[in-house]
Amino acid sequence: MHYTERGEGPTVVTLHAATASSLMMGWLAHVVRHEGFNVVTPDLRGHGETPNPAPDVNLPRLVDDILEFIYMLGRTPVHGIGYSLGGAVLLYAARRRTELFSSLILLGTNYHAPPEERLLRVLGPPEQRPEPVRRVFDPETGVTVGWDAPPDSFRGVLCPTLLICGDRDEFNDPEDILTLYRTLPRAETLIVPRTDHLGLVRHPMVLQALQDFYTRVPR
Q: What is the sign, positive or negative, of the torsion defined by CA atoms of 194, 200, 203, 206?
């Protein structure tokens, strides 16, 4: 896995959204580094500079990758920040190995994949999507495969977790975020008003919530 690293202190692994790369997480990496953390930003399989030799890019495969990546870093437990798909990868990784995580911040992230009708509305028909989008969201081999665990299965995620969602998120229903908030033992939530999925990026309420969260969680 290709990754970049900056800063000193406890390690934060930050994961990007689908069809993007670690470059899109630079705005978060900058803020987190100045909070006194070492920030590691990988490219997920089949994204950015990380190749995908496998015939698929489903969520369980991405979770296997990040668990192996964290193991190879040798710095557990780590903090995790994920945006959209990146948050789902971290959430499912913590579901399997909660002891590897000191905390999680999940932005625009759900415990299940966006319903097909939402994908159609936002991305358009599959045949009209650009090739990278079509590949990543392929219904048989893409990231939505295996992204379907019931909310109760996340009760074992024991680390402090901050859930952030826009109230007008095109991909996620804020009610689902509240369901996850009520399920996770140590969760907090922020529903950002008048904000869509992309609007979370660099939003001042998001940045303030992130900084406040890190003043309260163990490092």
A: positive
The domains found in the chain, sorted by start residue, are 3-212 (3.40.50.1820)
Contact 146/174 with Cβ under 8 angstroms?
A: no
- Name which of 192, 196, 195, 197 is nearest 209 in CA terms: 192
Q: What share of the chain is helix, strand, coil (3-state, %, to 5)?
A: 40, 20, 40
Angstrom distances, CA of residue 110 to CA of 7, 26, 28, 150: 29, 22, 19, 11
CA distance 62 to 64: 5
Between CA 38 and CA 53 the distance in angstroms is 29
pLDDT digits (tens, 9 = 90+) for 166-181: 999 999 999 999 999 9
Q: Is 142 helix (H, G, I), strand (E, B) or coil?
A: coil
Structure confidence at residue 84 (pLDDT): 98
